[in-house]
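Q: I have 323 residues here and want to know how they pack in 3D. Can you give me a structure?
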Amino acid sequence: MVLFLSQKDVKDIVDMKEAINIVENAFSEFYRGKAIMPVRTAINTEDGVTLIMPALLKEMKALGTKIVTVYKNNPKIGLPTILAIVVLNDPKTGAPLAVMDGAYLTAVRTGAVSGVATKYLANPDSKIVGIIGTGVQAGTQLWAVSEVIKIENVKIYDTIENSAKSFVRGMSKKFDFDIQIVNTPKNAVENSDVIITSSTSKTPVFDGNWLKEGAHINAIGSHTPDAREIDDITIKNSKIVVDSKEAILKECGDILIPIKNKVIKKEDIYAELGEVVIGKKRRKNPSEITLFKSVGLAIQDVSMAKLVYEKALRKNVGKEIEL
């Protein structure tokens, strides 16, 4: 029997603090060589991309694969931009244990990894957050960051005003800190301690000259070689930490384009997140600008899927199906 978990089931089970902890452990395993994770395979069509993402975490005893699609025109026909499923297998037998919705899980694990990065890279007294782009990812990003720093004020910018208004309405019900819409990206970035970019833009969304000393950036929107949210000034002036150098150097325009233009060299990538988690590398002084660039890794999805599966069994959530 295989446990089937719907998006509602996953939402009812997921807790961000637990997600941050499990993802942090996954990055530790990955850096210490205790995980197997091929670079994801991409299948491009005229309308979107399909990504196949397998991973094995040996210490966590988690084996699985995510299949995720990104189709930017889906909202025009009433579908989410991102659709996904995760299959979790028994690492001893290979037998499928669970099939679960991966869209919400993707949003949460992406937020969780930024939570880990913010925990280790942002200044401890950070309290002002600027967000550019207000889709589903922005909500889980804010949720995760709120778990690791004491937020007092959030500034929101989106090119679609109704999207920004809807975001503020939803987030204001969830959090008690001040959330306000600003009318320019500059207003979102200036004086912010933590900046989150979660747009679908293919070109930089802010000017690096607007960043305050000691700011931390979580850049999670762009994930293809031809797209970037972060400009050359920011890239050149930041201490760059990535989820995986191998993945970043294969598919991340935020880094590949500046390397191609000789703004930076690949050696200028300071660390992988796993190195920071285990204490091998760290922020050295409060005035540094730090940039975390994530394209998303299967270890995040599989570790989260294992967590969700085990909680579902304890809570008797989901439906068993026979294949």
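Q: Anything worth noting?
A: The radius of gyration is 19 Å. The first strand starts at residue 2 and ends at 5.
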